[in-house]
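Data availability (excerpt). The following record was deposited with the supplementary files.
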Amino acid sequence: MLPFTRPWIDEDTIEAVAEVLRSGWLASGPKVAQLEAELSSYFGGRPVRTQTSATAGLEMALLACRPPRRRAWRWRCSPVASARAMRSSRRR
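Predicted structure:
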């Protein structure tokens, strides 16, 4: 089997991942808060929130639309997730 790419992961990255796994905080812990703070700083202090799934991110983006539009595009690669996000944000 031919690999598409060979990943290059250094020891610092492996240790950072192991630290998160050992902490028990996989989706909402201190590293997530640190990432959001650094992104906020990068974007000039604007509020930043991360999501644990693309569906949640899509729903959040649809809810953030101002003014809310009644219609939204549905992506062919994820019709169920797109439909769920549109329904939750009251779009069709």
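Summary of structural features: The chain has a mean pLDDT of 80.
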